[in-house]
Predict the structure.
Amino acid sequence: MRVRVLATPDAIARMLARDIARRLARNPRLVLGLPTGLTPIPFYRELARLYRAGRVDFSQATTFNLDEFVGLPSSDPRSYRAFMQRYMFDDVNLPSRRAHFLDGMAADIDRECVRYERAIARAGGIDVQILGIGANGHIGFNEPSDALQARTHHTHLRDATRRANAALFGGRLADVPHQALSMGMATILHAKRVVMIATGASKARSVARMVQGPVTPRVPASFLQLHRYAEVWLDRAAASRL
Ligand code: GLP
């Protein structure tokens, strides 16, 4: 894994946004995989700023979000779709038909997962998958367990993960859904390039286990060690246990 340590979360946001803008200039039809969470917000705001400055163009780009809660309609402000609208999509020229999300209200969940995998394949696969990491080592909603799912699937969320997402629900843990849909580990590893961003001391332990520990489903992010071109962008606090 290529580890890059930058001084601050803002430095990560600025460099990664410029990197994506350059890639889009070279390949306007870039396919991006995108995460939610607090970590990528400065990056999304920076992309919106670059767009306003005329320095990035999403008119031919395609995006696939990593995951979504089950049971929230897309109009729900707490859904990941609403999150993306709020922090980025409302402010850039990405055509909505090319912004792909899992539908947490789908009547047939298994079919919805297959639909998503097919849509990714039809788009030619993901060129750059951006990721965050949970404090328990999850990526997307691939939770620590005895075994991981390869492809997009339906999953039960651990309490630690529900607590980490409670801020989206006004801090009310009881309101955080127990189930979600998520890309699987193979979906993620098949991206041509993977960029994990992690900031803050609360991520230092899971970052060290991801980079230096064994590859184990107990730390789903450790599977990124198997990727041919995985980068890990950290601030000093997240890198402090390496
Ligand atoms: C959620 C998302 C993950 C994300 C994680 C970390 O569980 N499903 O994709 O990486 O949160 O979020 P944060 O960046 O807020 O720590």
Q: What stands out?
A: The chain has seven helices and ten strands. The chain has a mean pLDDT of 97. The first strand starts at residue 2 and ends at 6. The pocket of GLP is lined by residues 35-39, 66-67, 132-134, 140-141, 161, 164-165 (CB under 6 Å).
